[in-house]
Amino acid sequence: MRAVKAVRAAAPATVIALGVFAAVRGAGVLVLTLGSWWAGKDPLRVLGRSWDSVWYLGIAANGYGRTQMWPSAATGTGSIQSDYAFFPLYPALIRLVGSVLPGGLLPAGILVAWICAAVAAVGVYRIGEWVIGPRAGLLLVGLWAALPHAVVLSLAYTEALLAALAAWALYALLRERWMWAAGLAVLAGLTRPTGLAVAAAVSVMALYAILTRRSRAPKVWAAGLLAPAGWAAYVVAVGLRVRDPLGGYFAVQQAWGSRFDFGAGALRSAERVLTGGHVPLATTVTVVLLAAAGLLAMLLVLDRTPLPLLAYTAILLLIAYGGAGFFESKPRFLLPAFPLLLPVAAVMARARPRTAVMVTAGLAGLSYGYGLYLLLVARVPL
Q1: Is residue 7 part of a domain?
Q2: Is residue 39 part of a domain?
Q3: Were 261 and a residue from 52, 176, 324, 328 both cysteine, which residue would form a disulfide, CB within 3.0 to 4.6 Å?
Q4: Inside any domain, residue 382
Q5: Residue 74 pLDDT > 50
Q6: Using N-to-C axis directions, what is the helix angle for 342-349 and 281-302, rounded to 10°?
């Protein structure tokens, strides 16, 4: 442990946090690479062309306009999947990096995701340091990197980008940097549908400042009004493209099978698991993780967590619990909800360092195994 203390004394805390994240996720990438080779698959394609990654790369290469129909033998019709369901910021970054990076769009998509994950890890540490202290902040980063679905942070997916924008927007809110928070919220709203949670946190805090502090500062009002602009702009743009300005985007999502049903679909899936129905392992794990997220959310409230983190996490949970379709993807949707881990990190910070390291390493090992299962074995969408 003396060596650990020496490193902490010599290196900035953010560098150590980044090292913790790189160690956990780097080992995960190595395990996934070896597993892919063993399964006879190209690791680069597993990292860059799994499920939704194909859509993002397609948008980066050719722009929007692709549709895909999946016929249904039961109904004689089928679902029509449109790439308008995917928000534009990540494909735009892939296209930008791919224009200067050798190898084309596939490595560019992976590189963008990895850089965003690293930026997110530093932001997660900063929030943990601010709320529960430096040591707990490091543990927060390690726990986040070892979540069951953390393999997504290594794929060409948008969760790393959203987590980076969310973490730094929330950190800006904690420090009352209103326009920084609003600008990052706009970008988060252009990243994926759940980016609305970042905008909600900014707008809620602006409203709170106006009502409780009688704030008349123009930047507070501007931040509250500007924050949802990115999300709203894309939703309206898709609506105009499909000739239904207000409802077009939601019609696109419904065609994918995604809609808000106030949790009815999630309850049906949980019932099948609890009654011993024949369900995939991913479904059972999803039910367990959603239940754990609910318990952690209650602990967040009891711990008097700062309001921006509560508002952000609450919207992510509302979307995850209340949305129908792609049930097994819900833990992925909650991957940017890192504030849920604050109570666990706070408890682990009071344990012996060796115990905390062993617990984190054990969770990381389980995460590596489950990541292999999700990408190489499971037949459910990630």
Answers
A1: no
A2: yes
A3: 324
A4: no
A5: no
A6: 70
Q: What is the dihedral of CA 348, 353, 358, 363, to 10 degrees?
A: 30
Cα 179 from Cα 169, distance rounded (Å):
9
**Pairing of the two strands 323-324 and 259-260:** antiparallel
Give the domain extent around 337.
13-377
- The C-alpha atoms of residue 269 and residue 328 are separated, in whole angstroms, by 10
pLDDT in tens, 108-152: 999 999 999 999 999 999 999 999 999 999 999 999 999 999 999
| Domain count for the chain | 1
Of 140, 142, 118, the closest CA to residue 128 belongs to: 140
- Mean pLDDT, rounded, of the chain: 91
Which tens digits make up the pLDDT trace of 230-253?
Answer: 999 999 999 999 999 989 999 999
Two tokens, residue 243: 């000739």
**Model confidence over 17-52: pLDDT tens digits?**
999 999 999 999 999 999 999 999 999 999 999 999
Whole-number pLDDT of residue 76: 46
CA distances from 269 to 154, 277, 287, 324 (A): 28, 9, 8, 10
Q: Is 231 helix (H, G, I), strand (E, B) or coil?
A: helix
Question: Is 109 part of a structural domain of the chain?
Answer: yes
The letter for the amino acid at 365 is G
Reading the block at residue 379, the tokens are 């037949």
- The token pair at 337 is 């909800």
Closest CA to 311 of 219, 222, 228, 221: 228
Residue 13 CB contacts under 8 Å (≥ 6 apart), including other chains? 125, 129, 134, 137, 138
Give 144-179 pLDDT, tens digit per residue: 999 999 999 999 999 999 999 999 999 999 999 999
**What's the CA gap between 167 and 298, in Å, rounded?**
21
Phi, psi of 71 (to 5 degrees): -70, 150
Cα first-last separation, the chain:
39
Are 120 and 143 in contact by the 8 Å Cβ rule? The answer is no
Rounded CA separation 159/52 (Å) = 11
